[in-house]
Amino acid sequence: MIGSLRGTLLERNAQLLIEVAGIGYRVQTTASVASSIGSLNSEVFVHIHHAVREDSEVLYGFATSQERATFELLIDAHRVGPSLALAILEVHPPQRLREIVATDAVDEMCKVPGVGRKTAIRLLVELKSKLDLPEADAPPDSGEESTILVDVRQALTGLGYSSDEIRQAIAKLGDISVDDGSGGDVQELVRQALQYLASPRS
Fold first, then answer.
1. 148-173: per-residue pLDDT in tens?
2. How many CA atoms lie within 13 A of 87 on its CB side?
3. Residue 36 in contact with residue 63, Cβ under 8 Å?
């Protein structure tokens, strides 16, 4: 598996083309990394996530090992593919992403193209158990969704469920709107979560 590349930057288009020992490697990355990695025909270094599938191999490049590690955590989340993970990192660098997850900042997560409120809530719940989060200095001010998210988690914790069970249950609530008046209040979300937790699962 390829973990990094050091070579000459030949192209900077939708992908980077980096030549190493006479071989050109195409590398997908964010626009911010592509613009700052170095000038054409200069030596560059990128940290690589090497994705191997049955029908293809893709290299994803990052300026730091922290970016690569965060990308790998993101693609391990439910319904987060490489394109969405790159879009998240384009808008929120690793440290900022940790602050957003730590404070349940739904509106900030929604700034990522293609991420709506329901997806943002599900991501915040799931990433809490994956990221090394900073301590929050003050209660977050991120709207109704954040308050509901915290209240549902606290209610399930009080009922004795583990963090993994809570994460899985709330992730299943992604199709329930929290602001359309059709079951998005805390009590209804807790009821739905309990129904999921009580159901047999393989």
1. 677 777 777 777 778 778 777 777 76
2. 12
3. yes
Biggest CA–CA distance in the chain, Å, is 62
Which conformational region is residue 160 in: left (phi greater than 0), alpha (psi within -120 to 50 degrees), or beta? Answer: left
What pLDDT digit, counting tens, does each position of 31-65 carry?
Answer: 999 999 999 999 999 999 999 988 899 999 999 99
Q: For residues 77 and 83, is the Cβ–Cβ distance under 8 A? A: no
- What DSSP string runs through 126-187? HHHTTS-PPPPSS-----HHHHHHHHHHHHHHHTT--HHHHHHHHHGGGGS-SSSSSS-SHH
d(CA 97, CA 105): 10
Q: What is the pTM of this model?
A: 0.68
Q: How many Å apart are CA 102 and CA 138, to the nearest integer?
A: 11
